[in-house]
Amino acid sequence: MSLTPADAAFVETLAAGLPADTLRPAEPRYLEEPRGRWTGAETWVALPRSTEEVARIVHACAKARVGLVPFGGGTGLVGGQIAPAPARPLLLSLERMTAIREMHPMENAAIVEAGAILADVQQAAAEVDRLFPLSLASEGSARIGGLLATNAGGVNTLRYGNARALVLGLEVVLPDGQVWHGLKRLRKDNTGYDLRHLMIGAEGTLGVITAASLALHPRPATTGTALLQVAGPDAALALLAEARAQLGDTVSAFELMHRTGFDFLAEVLPELRQPWDAPPEWSVLIELGLGHGADPQAALETLFATAHAAGLVSDGLIAQSQAQAQDFWSLREHLPIANRGIGAVSSHDISVPLGAVSEFITRADAALAEMGRWRINCFGHLGDGNLHYNVFPIPGESRADHADTRDAIKRCVHDIVHALGGSVSAEHGVGRLKVEDLERYGDPAKLAAMRAIKAALDPRGIMNPGAVLATG
Amino acid sequence: MSLTPADAAFVETLAAGLPADTLRPAEPRYLEEPRGRWTGAETWVALPRSTEEVARIVHACAKARVGLVPFGGGTGLVGGQIAPAPARPLLLSLERMTAIREMHPMENAAIVEAGAILADVQQAAAEVDRLFPLSLASEGSARIGGLLATNAGGVNTLRYGNARALVLGLEVVLPDGQVWHGLKRLRKDNTGYDLRHLMIGAEGTLGVITAASLALHPRPATTGTALLQVAGPDAALALLAEARAQLGDTVSAFELMHRTGFDFLAEVLPELRQPWDAPPEWSVLIELGLGHGADPQAALETLFATAHAAGLVSDGLIAQSQAQAQDFWSLREHLPIANRGIGAVSSHDISVPLGAVSEFITRADAALAEMGRWRINCFGHLGDGNLHYNVFPIPGESRADHADTRDAIKRCVHDIVHALGGSVSAEHGVGRLKVEDLERYGDPAKLAAMRAIKAALDPRGIMNPGAVLATG
């Protein structure tokens, strides 16, 4: 049962039932992705303005058995937004559906359309004195629909959870074109299977998210930021435990950074202000969000003193101003750009149980050392056990020199992650990049259940074909 | 495709492959439920000791097309644990699988079997200085498997979320007898569809949960409890907003109580110490969990002073000791028993958006007044918009006098909930009680998707037949 390409004849018929400018040939920006690993096939892009138009498009694709790739901000790192060549599916961009439909500050809820950009949703929440805590490097261009479809993580997961923890309800066009109107604003609703969590993280393979009811949070009255030198990942985890003992749930971010990251930043972005004369091997960026009357600098100084006495931290900088805090965060947020400037041989978005973080790094470093000489930039959301363990060539070599080794490196790192009970896709998703990994490492009963669900909800296989699940 | 009864021949064959005492005729306690609305058909109960034995039982049932009703603590309020007469399914009790398999205090995680009693899990967490925050009236007998299958709520949802928010991973026997080994201890894992959240809340209709990886939390260093008189539900919600502004996420419970509840407690349980000379029309039980060095009584006094100045509270009691705090909680926790002593004509576990709570109560009270004279005990988890709106006969009449009116009352209340964008099952689930309500009020696209998923994962329809989804 192969798919029909979205050819001129199909597009002409579809266009007849939609406003004049809804369909057009896809410009290059729809066919590219941040890491440059895939290029989409030439195709058409549909740009609907309403859920009803999305439903009409999906229904037409289902009828004609034409594949459909939902497209948000295009920031995904696993190729889920790229339309593969053989099937030539239609692209469906939600970029015209950007409305903040409703704001309910008293209920800590907002209803937004899938095309809304994350930074705009954060801003709309701030305007009613609320926090929408999802935050990640691409927040200026990533859109809500894609963020939910991939269950995005980011820097505030430690306190507020993944994207899925911030969703009260969804509006979704199902693969047959029916609309599930699930935009409830309820904290408790046990009326049947939780379709919401099934759609979140399904990466557009089970339907198109058109709008979401999001959970907002109170805005912390005051925040504190520090950059602390730690002896290593174990010391960092002990520091986190101490921070939580002293400060409870107010620790909102806890990011591990390796010296290699500071080196890359100096090399690729020399204009960025560097905090250290000589960067330490390991450091931690910590952020607190506290209530009225609290003194975050004093809290961080107390934490530092305790941790210093316990031998966990050796030096540190506590931001003395909002500007300095932003400088610290700027370093963390520019790491992906610095990495791209150097050019990774292989990047890994992994998680392991917290108790296995240190062992993972030791084992992976040792195994890779046997395969060659590398620069390894290991950084990430330590409090979630989520590391970006990225492998780069040494100076004088390029990623192209190691194209033959890439798969072996990936396999080596992922084998260690799997052996430690971890995940080979912590926050970026499966997309097209990790379909094979899912087959290799996934639980067979879970994979069988996933295939049964996919076949049940999308029997014609039109939704984001080739993403997440291997097509038969 | 009707089911085969679990008759002596089937049980004999099944027993041959299991330890001698695994199967026995079900004693009356397996055929009863707390509200006395259903009685199960005479049947057999299987009491496996391991996941492997559960898998063998499920596989045998699938092969013979015998229905299977998973049984936890038997505390469910919607009949989901009751085996209906016509199909005579086998009962599957998890009561022998009570192990706390692993404790990971550093990771704030625990792996427990489905038969573990909630209070025992709470206790095991406390022994390693952690909190497992799920808490509800039946915690001394409810078991983890049932609590997750129904996505239980309770009094700490406001701060810690529903049961599903406390689950990192699951081990589940799927309807064909395959075991999904999903007991990960990860905070981030985006490897495919989230089966975990699909199984949680499916009430045993998609598989049998045999173990869970649970999220623990730091234990609050100190707690504070107060019982405050409020002018009404709107004032209570304004008080909650003020409490959160002053105290952030440390508000762990916020329970609304109506005077009728105190009256019922005095009538049914006269030995309980009553806090008021004359109970106020509306009061709120509030609990804080604070960090080291905090003074919860001072925090509650400040809250009271601010709220009193704003006209939100008129009087109040701040617990001066742990014993007094327990007295306050004892009142709240005995409400279900008091209600049973009076005998409800109709009970409703509903939720509405916070902004609609007051309107719901006004409209429901007015509509019911047109149908007769009642005593209404409206109480519950106000911070979650979750009310137990229970309708009782006036003194001198009994529930039996109104048997004919019950359905009309339920319909009237649920119609109002639905019109306000609420849920007719907030925390108790659908079970057998609300199958018709789900058909009436459920979104058609969602229902179609649920049916497709059920047919895909349980094509023989053996798992908890008749619960959640109407059987055709």
Q: Explain this structure to me?
A:
The structure is a homodimer of 472-residue chains. Chain A has helices at 8-16, 51-64, 118-127, 144-149, 157-160, 195-199, 233-247, 259-268, 296-309, 322-342, 357-369, 406-419, 435-441, 444-457; strands at residues 23-25, 44-46, 68-71, 90-93, 100-104, 109-113, 130-131, 167-173, 179-182, 208-215, 217-218, 222-230, 251-258, 282-290, 313-318, 349-351, 374-381, 386-393. The first copy, chain A, is α+β, with helices and mostly antiparallel strands. Among the domains of chain A are: 100-218, Uridine Diphospho-n-acetylenolpyruvylglucosamine Reductase, domain 3 (2-Layer Sandwich); 220-341, Alpha-Beta Plaits (2-Layer Sandwich); 343-430, Alpha-Beta Plaits. In chain A, the strands form 4 sheets. A 7-stranded antiparallel β-sheet of chain A has the order 15-12-14-13-17-18-16, sandwiched between helices. Chain A has a 5-stranded antiparallel β-sheet with strand order 5-6-10-8-9. Chain A has a 4-stranded mixed β-sheet with strand order 1-2-4-3, covered by helices on one side. In chain A, strand 8 (167-173) and strand 9 form a beta hairpin. In chain A, helix 8 (259-268) crosses helix 10 (322-342). The mean pLDDT of chain A is 95. Chains A and B meet through strand 9, helix 6, helix 7, helix 13 and helix 14 of A and strand 9, helix 6, helix 7, helix 13 and helix 14 of B.
